[in-house]
Amino acid sequence: xxxxxxxxxxRGESRFVDDxxxxxxxxxxxxxxxxxxxGRLRALHVEEAFARPGVVAVFxxxxxxxxxxxxxxxxxxPLLADGTVHFVGQPMALIVAESAAAARAARAAVRAEIExxxxxxxxxxxxxxxxxxxxxxxxxLGDVDAAWQECDVIVAGRADxxxxxxxxxxxxxxxxxxxxxxxxxxxxxxxAPTATQRVTAWVLGLPMHAVEVDTPRLGGAFGGKEDQATxxxxxxxxxxxxxxxxxxxxxxxxxxxxxxxxxxPYSSDFKLGLRRDGTFLAYEVRFHxxxxxxxxxxxxxxxxxxxxxxxxxxxPNVRATAFSCRTNLPPNTAFRGFGAPQAMFVMECAIxxxxxxxxxEPRVLQEKNLLxxxxxxxxxxxxxxxxxxxxxxxxxxxxxFDAWAARVREFNAVHAREKKGLAFxxxxxxxxxxxxFLNQASALVHVYTDGSVGVSTxxxxxxxxxxxxxxxxxxxxxxxxxxxxxxxSTNTTRAANTSPTAASSGADLNGNALLLACGQVRERLLAxxxxxxxxxxxxxxxxxxxxxxxxxxxxxxxxxxxxxxxxRRVSLSAQAHYATPGIHFDRGKEKGEPFAYHVWGxxxxxxxxxxxxxxxxxxxxxxxxxxxxxxxxxxxxxxxxGGLVQGLGWMTVEEVLHSPEGRLLTDTLTTYKVPDLYFAPxxxxxxxxxxxxxxxxxxxxxxxxxxxxxxxxxxYFALLEAMRAARPGLVCELVSPLTPERVLxxxxxxxxxxxxxx
Length: 758
Ligand code: MOS
Hints:
alpha+beta; 19 helices
C-alpha cells in the first residue's frame, strides 16, 4: 500500500482516539441503554448506581445545560431519553467513573420504570400506519401509466434487502478535555468534525468557538461515523463540562453493534415493462426504507435511492416513490453507497425476472438498455461523458463474456452436485452530496521556512487514503517529493464549517480546495523568483524541487526560494475554499443537475454453489472501473477491492437479525458474519478504464469510495443463476442476503423466513 499511515498501522504506532496519551484526572463514561424497543419512561432511578464504587456522576436528560437534541437534518433525536424510549439500546443515562469497568458495572444498578408500548419493526407496517420520517417523495420521467399499454412483457414483484453492520475496526470513541474560558477540546472519531462541534455546542449551550473538535484519523467508518459519532462526543463533552475533568467514552464492540444504526433494510415493490426485443419501456417502484426510530440521515439516503433507481440504464417512463418509515430500531444511517445499492438491487431483481420471462440471459437486457450520452436520468440531468457502454465494451473485450458464459455452461453440464452461476453488474453512481450546499470544502497550507509543507483540510482520513491523495495534490503543485508534505489532523479551528467526509467526495472537494490554496502560494513564490532572477514570472515554473525557466535550471532551489520569500515578508500560507460549480436541485420539481459527474463500471461475478450444502465460493470478479486519471492507482485499487468485498458481504453472509421484541440478535462477530480472506473472491481482476479527463476532479481524477461497493450486488444474481442451474424452474423469493442457509432452504423447497425488520 502507498499510504502515509501504512507503516504506523503495521507497527501499531497509529494513534486512534483511544490511543491518545491519557490526560491527568481522566474519567471514563459508559452509556446505560434502554432495554425495550418502545415505552414511556416513567422514572429513572440512578441513586444506587451513583453509590457504586468508583462512580463519580450519573447524568440524565435533566443534566443537559443546552438542548437535548442531536438531530441535524430533522431535529427529532434526543441525546438522552426523555419521556419515551424508541429503541433497544437508546441511551438513557451516562455513568462516569474512575475506570471504564466501574462505569459499566454500575449500569446494572440503574432502575428504569418503563411502561412498554407496542413496537413497530416492519417498514411496511410503519408505512401503513402513517409513521413516516418525512413525506413520501416521487421521481418521475415520461408517462408510466400510458406506457404499460405499449409493453409486450411486464414483470412485477417484491424485493427485500437487509441491513449491514459497519464493522469499522475502531469502535465509536471520544475524549473530551475541558479548556480555558469554559470551552472544550474534543477528540472524536467522526467523519463530520463540524457537525460534532455544532451539536456539542447545542447540547452544552455554548457558542461553537468554545468547542474545538480534532480528528486525528479513523479506524474505518464506511458512513457509520458520518452522523453517529456525534452522540458519543456530545456525551463525553457533557460529562467533561459538568465535572471539569477529562472524560473518555469508547464503545465496546458489542455496545457499538447494539447502540448504533446500520445500513437501511429496504422492502420494495417493482414493475418493469419491456418490448419483445428487450427494450425497457416503463419502470415503477415503491421503496419502503426502514429508517429506525429517528431521522438521522434517512431522508438524504432515501433521496439517493431515488437518484439511482434506474442504475446505469435508460428507461423512458419511470415512477419511483420512496417512503422513509419510522420503526423502533436504532436509527439506521449512512453506509457506503448511501441508499444507492438498495435501489440497484431492486432494478437488477426486475431485470432478472424479465430475462427469465423472455428466456434470455440478463446480460442481454442489461447491455441493450445501458445509458448513452444525451439520455436523461429521471431527475432531469443529462448523461454526458457517460461510460456505461464504454466500460461494458471494455469488460467484454477484456474478459470475453461469451467464452466465460460458455465455460460456466460446460461446467454445469458435467457437474451435478456443484453448479456455477455468472452475472454481470454495470454501475452508475452520481458524485456530489445530493444536499447541494454540502458540496464545499476548505484547505489551509503552510510552507515552512525549511521548505517543508503542512496541509489542513476538512477531509478525514479513515483508512481510505484521502491524506495520501492530498499529499499528491500539494506535492504536484509545488513539484516536491511526497515526503516534503505532511497532512495534519482534521480540526475545526483550522478548517471551519466543513462538510462530512462522505459521499465519496472527500478527495474531490478537499483536493480542489487544496489546489487553490497551494496555487496561491506557488504564484507568490514564482513572483519572488521572477523579481530575484529578473525573468517574467510567466516564464518560470517549479519542477523537481527547483525553479525552471523553460527547460533550463534557473539556479534557484525550492528551499532557497522559500527562505528568500520569507525574508521579503511574503506570506507562505494560504487558505482556500472550493464549492462545486454548476450543481443544483429543485426538490419541488424533483429535477435538476445534482451531480458534478458520474462514476461508471462493469463487473462480472462467477460463483460455484455446493448444491448439497448450500454453501458457495466466489470464484472470480472481473471488472472495469472508471477512476478517471487516478491520483494514486494503488489507493484506488484498494478502495475498489475493499468496496467490492463489502458489497459481496452485504448480499451474501452479512445478516442483521432482530428478535420480535426489537433486540439485536447478531451483536457479536461470531453471530454476525463478515467476509474474510477465505470468503473473498479467489480472483479479483481490475482494469481501470482509460479516461482522458474529468475536469471536476483534482488533476482529472474521479471519486472512488462508494461506487465499487455496487459491483457486489452482482453476486446475488450469480447465485440465483447457480440455484436455477441446480433446480430448473426454481421460484426464488427476492430476499437478500442470500446466506447459505437461505440458499439451502430454497433449494429444498422451503420458504426461508424473512428477517424481522426488512
Ligand atoms: Mo458516506 S455512506 O456518504 O458517509
